[in-house]
Structure formats: structure tokens, C-alpha cells
Specification:
- The chain is an alpha+beta fold.
- The protein has two domains: 65 residues, Rieske Iron-sulfur Protein; 212 residues, Naphthalene 1,2-dioxygenase Alpha Subunit, Chain A, domain 1.
- The protein has eight helices and 15 strands.
- Strands 9-15-14-13-12-11-10 form a seven-stranded antiparallel sheet.
- Strand 14 and strand 15 form a beta hairpin.
- The protein is globular.
- The two termini are 38 Å apart.
- InterPro entries: Rieske_2Fe-2S, Rieske_2Fe-2S_sf, Ring_hydroxy_dOase_asu_C_dom, Rng_hydr_dOase-A.
Length: 300
Amino acid sequence: MTFYCTNAHQMSNVCRHRQAIMLQGSGSTEHVVCPVHRWTYDPQGELIGAPHFAQKPCLALQRDALESWHGLLFKGPRSASADLDGMRLASALDFSGYKLDRVDIHECNYNWKTFIEVYLEDYHVGPFHPGLGNFVTCEDLSWQFGDWYSVQQVGITSLARPGSPTYARWHKAVLDYCGDDKPAQGAIWLTYYPNVMVEWYPHVLVVSTLVPVAVNKTRNVVEFYYPEDIVAFERAFVEAAQAAYMETAIEDDDIAERMDRGRLALMKEGRNEVGPYQSPYEDGMQHFHEFYRRILAPHI
């Protein structure tokens, strides 16, 4: 549960009486009431009601402070604001005025690091993504790197030649909504190491969080956000954006599965092969490899 007073905080959803889960689903509430015995807590987690107890027990829900970075909430040992400080494109990833529309759980049949490798190289966009490759222009790709992040920016085409029927809908949605006010870029892709991605597309923000499940299984939690007016009145825009996003995601799955199968085949033969990095298109992959080696070095 997340509550906002002066600052946002995360609060336990487990009742202090018999450890039952209290709230389910999504929504908002002024008080938290456990349905089992009607124990009631205020927004600070303090117990304010315990039926049939002569004296109210001195019990409260556990609270953890959350850190806000441009509207995204983080909890953990690190500071997102410090890790992402100095990122030039941060203002484009501001969630003010944006509303969550949908959360997708996308199951990937490959290692989480392979996902990041594919995400951080643009070398494959032209050959493998007919839809995305005719929406963005990677020829004007630019990178910025920090100790804990990489961010890439690519331009946008004229939107005159969509590369797939799905992207034709997305092109039309962007042109219809933007009119003569053409977007300044096609996409911004931030990777906050090791496993969080924040993406900008015209009037769209997407957050992806990777959850490793097994050596060859990864769960990707994908959150789609849009300006409030688009969520309320522009359903065709929302659906076109999500369909285009998922078309590209499925194509990326194909690449990543091929990579993992190839590496497994080499491992079974007792071989290890690595290829050269293409610069600038694969600069992000190289940066991730350097990051990962640096983080692992003290432990191996």
C-alpha cells in the first residue's frame, strides 16, 4: 500500500492481529480496515480501532519511506535521485499529469541479462524491427552514461511509411493527435541498472521492471502511462501505442531466445565466443557489461 502525506511511504498490508492480508486489488481509501476482525488503521498505519478490546493494543503497520524521482517511487538501499543525477533527458521522463492505464506481465524465456543486452543495442533495429525501424531513426542516436544508468535518444521519421500494419495504426494515432506539432524525437530509452527501464514515446511513458525467475526465465512487469486526457478520451491512441510496443517486444523476445540458445549450444561444446561491439549502436551493451563486471568484481 502506498500513502501520500507530506512524503510518500509504503505501508504493510498485513494486519497486526492475525496477519491477514487486508486490501486486495487497486483503489484508494482513507482508512485501512481488515475484513476479518475489523481492525482499522489510519493513513499513517496507526491502529485506531480494535473491536471488543478494552484497551487498544499498541500496534501499528510497518512503514517504509519512498523516494520520488520525477513522480516515480523507489524503495531500496540506493538513492535513485543520486544515481540518476546529471541525466540531461530527465525532464522528458517526468510523470506529472500522467496516469497509469495498464500493467502487463510479460513472461520471457531467457535470462534477464540477455533482455538488457538486446535493449541496449540499436544495431538490430533496422534489420529486425520493420515497425519500430520505420518509426524511429537510429542514425541520429545519442547516448549518455552514468555509473548506474544509460540513456539513449533516437529521432523520428516522417511517419509516411509504416513498416507493419500495427505500426500503421500507431503512426496514424500520433499524426492525428499531434497534428502539425511533430514530436521532437521518436523515443528515449533509460536503463537504471540493473533492471529498471523508463521509456518515452510521443505522449507515452512506459516503465519496465525485470524480475529474474530462473536462469532462462524472466518476468517483465510493464506499466503504461499517458496524459490524463489521453487515458480519458483517446482510447484509440492508447491501444495503438500498446499494440506497437508489444509487437516490438515479441520481436525482441525472438532475438533474445536465439542468443540464449546459441550460448547454451556453445556451453555444451565447452566453447565461449564473443563478438566485437559496433559503435555507436552497441555502446550501451558495452557499458552494461562494464557495469556488471565492476559490480561483481568484489564478490568473485
